[in-house]
Specification:
mainly alpha; three-stranded mixed β-sheet; 21 helices; elongated
């Protein structure tokens, strides 16, 4: 019996087991619409078995939280059998209290997959028919309209997940193949009827951490691409500034013994391989490079360690059952717990935010080294005609502005809490805030590193008589396919956006991987001394 999780022809198989991998979600993170879901028979059996237990308690009119009672502070109110369907509808519709701009479609589609993955493990008690309809809706590119704000990250992402559930029921709005319309019309467009919820099903659809996890997954996957791009671009800056590769020596990395440090040192050596700039450094009058160059393995390595930690947390969380109550069909137990609390995601994403803010800070410092004529020994602001041309003067200012904004956003969300639901929910995670802030810092960081990319490539061309490293040559050539050399002042915004798009899309990291076999922290033991 197949119980492994894999993508075959862009199909993600619901296995009924906790074996989803982050790599399975990369297609969705890239916005690919042709990803499909399918369910294995083993998964169907688990869902059906769990549902039988729910139906038994409903038929016997037993008082069981989440099945035949109210919710939250109203947990002690028993609900009559004939009102259970109305109870589910009321729950979902009353909890549709989202605020603000909608989540991007790719994030919602990841959330759709993650919610189904948790429900399909046979501990939530939904009907098989409901799971099958959710799969059909996903495969027909029916995507609920979900406001970004309104969750405190405990009792799950109640408000945004309620908007997702309500769309399935025909309320609110939804996208069909990217086109926004009323949810009732969207259901008609894909040939589906509004979802009819039975006992426990409304609670199962909205009681989870899938919104924060979807944002977190998207942020992490892009952060991994950014971390590799930042190494290559830092190497290009080193060449432009006529720096030394001595701090990247393998024997130094071994003495440090840190996985992220070793990965970064490896990457720098590979990207700079065959560079004539490094040889020229042996006869210059500089004793040491500034910390933004010399400490690249330490700083970038620490960022990679944070990314690896977040990857480990999310690999667990995307497979976690976050429903409540949780059903154990083998023993007949239905247990209330706190799996919906988003603290694991909240703390991890705060950590990632700090790491990305730090990556931005050191990138901006290298940009300053490049544009400052007192430091770079190149024309001021890398302008072809300083004075007449301002060059990249204000690009560095924009980079500094983003770094300053990141410092504000880096305040941890996970240490904040505010009681809700009449103090029944007296500690909350703010995990959705943490994930959303982390994504905002990621976008800023991509632009900060993009500005360094522009400046490093421009600076490198002031002494391009020296051969580049194999990786820096590929990087400069890639940039020049969309951004020509700066021969005079022009509309700089377009250059910055083109450079950022190369980083965001993975073109930079893919180019480096192909040319240089780049590494992340997970490619090395956590500690050489363990």
């Amino acid at each position: 019996m197949l119980k492994t999780c894999r993508i075959l022809r862009q199909t993600i198989y619901l296995t009924g087991e906790p074996n989803l991998k982050l790599e399975e979600l990369k297609g969705l993170a890239r916005g690919e619409g042709d990803v499909k879901l399918s369910m294995l028979d083993f998964c169907r059996e688990k869902i059906t078995t769990a549902r039988k237990l729910v139906d038994h308690h409903v038929e016997e009119e037993n008082v069981v939280y989440g099945l035949t009672t109210g919710f939250g502070k109203l947990k002690n109110v028993a609900i009559a059998k004939q009102d259970l369907r109305k109870l589910q509808d009321n729950l979902v519709l009353s909890h549709c209290c989202g605020i603000g701009e909608p989540m991007p479609i790719d994030e919602v589609r990841i959330a759709q997959v993650l919610r189904l993955w948790g429900l399909s493990q046979g501990h939530s008690g939904i009907r098989l028919e409901l799971a099958e309809q959710l799969i059909r809706l996903f495969n027909k590119q029916f995507v609920p309209f979900v406001p970004r704000k309104g969750s405190v990250g405990a009792s799950g992402d109640l408000a945004p997940l309620s908007h997702m559930a309500a769309a399935y029921m025909g309320y609110g709005k939804a996208y069909v193949k990217g086109e926004l319309m009323e949810a009732s019309e969207a259901l008609k467009a894909v040939g589906e009827s509004p979802m009819q919820l039975e006992a426990k099903e409304g609670l199962s659809l909205i009681n989870g951490t899938e919104i924060m996890k979807a944002t977190a997954v998207l942020t992490l996957l892009r952060a991994e691409k950014l971390a590799l791009a930042a190494d290559g671009i830092a190497a290009l800056s080193l060449e432009a500034l006529m720096g030394t590769a001595t701090p990247f020596a393998e024997r130094l990395a071994k003495l440090k013994g840190d996985a992220g440090h070793m990965a970064t040192s490896h990457n720098m050596r590979e990207v700079l391989r065959d560079s004539e700039v490094l040889a020229s450094h042996t006869k210059c009058d500089r004793v040491q490079d500034p910390y933004s160059l010399r400490c690249i393995p330490i700083i970038h390595g620490s960022v990679k360690n944070a990314i690896q930690h977040v990857r480990q947390v999310l690999n667990t969380e995307i497979n976690s059952v976050t429903d409540n109550p949780i059903i154990f069909p083998d023993t007949g137990d239905i247990l209330s717990a706190g799996h919906f609390h988003g603290m694991p995601v909240s703390m991890a994403m705060d950590y990632l935010t700090l790491a990305l803010a730090t990556l931005s800070n050191v990138s901006e410092r290298r940009t300053e080294q490049l544009v400052n004529p007192d430091l770079s020994r190149m024309p001021g602001f890398l302008a072809p005609n300083p004075g007449l041309d301002s060059g990249y003067m204000i690009a560095q200012v924009a980079s500094a502005a983003l770094c300053s904004e990141n410092k504000v956003l880096a305040h941890p969300a996970s240490v904040d809490t505010i009681p809700t639901s009449a103090n029944q929910e007296d500690h909350v995670s703010m995990g959705t805030h943490s994930a959303r802030k982390s994504f905002d810092v990621l976008v800023n960081a991509e632009h900060v590193v993009a500005i360094e990319y522009l400046c490093a490539a421009q600076g490198r061309e002031f002494h391009d008589q020296l051969a580049e490293g194999k990786g820096t040559r590929e990087l400069r050539n890639l940039l020049r396919t969309v951004v020509p050399r700066l021969e005079g002042d022009r509309f700089t915004y377009t250059d910055m956006e083109h450079a950022a798009a190369l980083i965001r899309s993975g073109d930079v990291s893919n180019t480096l991987q192909t040319a240089c076999n780049m590494k992340l922290a997970g490619d090395f033991p956590v500690s050489q001394f363990a």
